[in-house]
Amino acid sequence: MNVFITGSTGFLAGELAVLLSKRPQIRRLYCLVRANDAQKAWSRLQQVFQFHGDAFDTTKVVPVVGDLADSSLAEKLCRLKDLGEVDTVIHAAADTSFAPSSTESVEKINIDGTQQILKWAQSLPNLRVTGIACHIGSQLTDMAPLMEALDRVLALAGVLMDKGVALQHLDLGGGLGIRYNEEQPPEPGDYVRAILGRLQTQDPRCQRLRLVFEPGRATVRNAHPGPPGGHTQLPQTASLTTEHDPGAVPARIPTRVLHGKGGSVARFAAAGAWREHWWRPGVRTRIFPASSARPLPRSPRCGAPSAYGAQHSSC
Length: 315
Description:
4-stranded parallel β-sheet, alpha/beta, TIM Barrel, 3 domains, globular, Rossmann fold, 8 helices
């Protein structure tokens, strides 16, 4: 694999670049670096590896001088013959300074810069641009940000199709919330209907694109905890079934028992399905305590169910 990555001197993509450089299946890792010259680009990239305490392999990691704010970036990348071997592009750079005074810079880098990368990627013989993906967050309880994101994705899709990019799908992400306490998040069906309604007023080319959704935690929405003292059935592979709210949809969370212990008085099991933010009200400002579940039936794969007490504290 020959990988091209943007944002490699930043926090997220910098960590990713270091990890990718260790993968034996990656032959070259080209890193776009904003710098005045190649020497400065080498220095900035080397600092990233030093920060993480990793070796900087100059035969594998190659800095590429470029700026996402440059309106001619795509043409400059096309002139670099070595980049013609790239078969994977990871665009992870962005301007996250969302102060009103930074609006122009944000649009130039995040929108125009993305178009430059897509324009260049379209010229690569080993790549084919087929879609756009967007995910703006999680635990969203208001439809407005989702619809605003949709409008921006459709605008970008129109620009790309005008330039000859043959898009086939739009991945609109998700992030719909669930009800921890008194929230009233939109239902997935309402979200889909709103999107389909908005598409009716858009470019007919966008109406023909395949839509992909990633509902996230909404797939287990309103799976509220049961009363304390319940029991959870956890065979080697199991589902935790939560039932409490009369209006809730029971949810099954696939899990595997990682460790079990106990005697005749009490038995305990550590399972791998618990979501950490259920236990962290300081982060999510909500508490979603441990739940109880009904016994699972015997199956050839799982064997007979065994009862475990539900633990109502963080693990």
